[in-house]
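Researcher: Hi, I'm a grad student and pretty new to this. My advisor asked me to get structures for two proteins we've been looking at. I'm not sure of the right format, so I'll just paste the first sequence and hope you can take it from there.
Model: That works fine. Here's the first sequence with its structure tokens right after it:
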Amino acid sequence: MLAIATTACSAEKVRLGLPTPATEQGKRILTLWQGSWVAALAVGALVWGLILWAVLFHRKRSDQLPPQVRYNLPIEMLYTVVPFIIVAVLFYFTARDETYLDKLTKNPKPGDVTIVNVTGFQWSWQFDYPQYKTTPIVGQPVSPDAANKPMFEIPVGKRVRFHLVSKDVIHSFWVPSFIFKRDIIPGAKSGQDFELTPTKTGTYEGRCAELCGVDHSRMLFQVKVVPQAEFDQFISSHKASGSAQ
């Protein structure tokens, strides 16, 4: 805590291993992550303090057996109630944020919510936009340092719904900068949709985060977050030419 305080960093910069969030939902996850660390450090400081206190004040001073206390009701209540409170607080904030992350827009319309169908297969991805009836973007397995990864675009500042489908085994859709990933379960009827609101333009790397076979490491893709006008051009070009790149 002293090292963090002396750096004079803002809470946004103290990400504790997480990347800079590129979505509204990512910011919420980052806040939960930071809060969990604060709670863990507070509990750790208490436990370390009690250990040091016991070491310093209850160390052996003679061969005389110290007074034996069989029951101590206040202490027993303390170490029962305090852990319960800690777990309850963590559960509350986790459940609150999970509800927020799983919230879906009812009756989404083009312009309000962009729907992207994401299909995982051994060993690449397919992306298409059912609202706009574009030609699917179908990728091929690529080497980890390849530049020709399948790429799709989404508009900045607008909600985007991802619908996940697997053609074979369990995959996992993961964009590290979104600080969000979800497993794609073959045949699943629910839990395969989620929505994100990108807040920063740029090109972000994505990959499969579930070991799915021999070429799992080649399941790479990119998502480009662009202004609405550029996204409209992207959709129009795919409608007009039928190109998958």
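Researcher: Oh nice, that was easy. Here's the second one.
Model: And its structure:
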Amino acid sequence: MQVAASSKDSNFTTIPSRSQWNIDPDAAYLHYTTNETISGVEFHAVPEVDGLPLVADMSSNILSRPVEVRRFGLIYASAQKNLGLGGMAVVVVREDLIGQPLPGTPSIFDYRRQADNGSMVNTPPTYAWYVAGLMLEWLKEQGGPAAIEARNIRKAEKLYAAIDASPFYSNLVDPAARSRMNVPFHLMDASLNNRFLADATEAGLVYLKGHRSVGGMRASIYNAMPEEGVDTLISFMREFERKRG
């Protein structure tokens, strides 16, 4: 495996410019994750890969915006962020890339067999399928991916603006690469972290603790989070700052 690009030197808070990537022209494919949930970094455009099949893990931002599917060799995503319940995955694969499994590949991962059997090589997780259907119906009612993208942009911009305008909070991610799904932030006084979480829970705002590898806070604002929820969080953050700052 060759790493084409990394932002390790900046603690994974940006995406290296395309000119800095070192892509092996003989590689079988190039893989990337469209949205990184821990540090809150997201690709806002599909990278150019010089003709290589592009493989994308879209688990955390699938259906959050329109996607030009034909630019990818393979897209895969777990369902539990924007599509439904855990226990189900979605795979979209280009026709010419299926039918060549490595020896020993379990039949469930043989995409030719899956395609030929209507994705039912084995008994599917029927309840997860049902919930995914409800989520897709809901997405249509919202106006589809373009409309949900506009709402997600508004939500993220509101929250980042509130963080950037305050000396009490900070977000270290390059503004050009900030995630619309996962907004990490830090209190300038880390000793207040536990009080922030306790007060937030009392106010009905839960699951705000940041990932253990980066600390701080993280607001995950996936499709199902309404704008009112973001507005409530911002109001709470301002009131907490007024009391504790």
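Researcher: Is there anything I should tell my advisor about the second?
Model: You could mention this: Residues 144-244 form a domain with the Aspartate Aminotransferase, domain 1 fold (CATH 3.90.1150.10).
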